[in-house]
Write a structure and sequence with these properties.
Elements: H1 3-19, E1 22-27, H2 33-45, E2 49-53, H3 55-64, E3 80-85, H4 90-100, E4 107-113, E5 116-119, H5 124-129, H6 133-164
Antiparallel strand pairs: 1-3, 1-4, 2-3, 4-5
């Protein structure tokens, strides 16, 4: 591959790192065509972008970024796919689904989610449990709505009692 081509790829990866707030590094080494196809299909359905990358070019793109991703460098071995997402927990849930089918690959190498670096396959459950911004907003609204509903219910009961008397 020519040096110009490599620099274009590094720029493209850097642009994706800037565009998406969360990304995962996934081990895809030795995956068969059926599993790869299923994974690509699941990524498309989940509105996430998956790109297979060379580790050396990915390292250069990570170095070019303002955020310090040096913790991830140790996992840049073998075949790596980058999964970009707007919602932090979607790829983790997808990877857990593959793991539940007793498939060893794809496997989590590392992730950058909610401004935090996670390294190792043992972080998958933690990443799957992360709540998205919309889920957190819904939780806050539900928490705020509950006392209001209690007051309204009490007022309705008083009105019903007053009308019965």
């Amino acid at each position: 591959m020519r040096k110009e081509d490599k620099s274009v790829i590094v720029e493209q990866i850097s642009a994706l790192l800037q565009q998406y707030p969360h990304f995962y590094l996934v081990d895809i080494e030795g995956m068969n065509a059926e599993t790869t196809s299923a994974m690509r299909r699941k990524c498309f359905q989940s509105s996430v972008k998956m790109v297979a990358v060379k580790n050396t070019l990915l390292k250069k793109a990570l170095d070019a970024n303002e955020t310090d991703f040096s913790e991830m460098y140790s996992v840049l071995k073998g075949s790596t796919a980058l999964i970009f997402t707007e919602t932090a927990n979607v790829p983790a849930k997808m990877l857990k689904e593959f793991a539940s089918k007793k498939q060893e690959k794809p496997a989590l190498k590392a992730a950058f989610a909610e401004q935090t670096v996670y390294v190792g396959a043992d972080q998958l459950n933690t990443l799957a449990a992360l709540k998205s911004k919309n889920e957190l907003i819904a939780d806050v609204i539900a928490a705020l709505e509950s006392p209001i509903m209690n007051v309204l219910s009490a007022l309705e009961n008083r009105e019903a009692q007053a009308a019965a008397e």
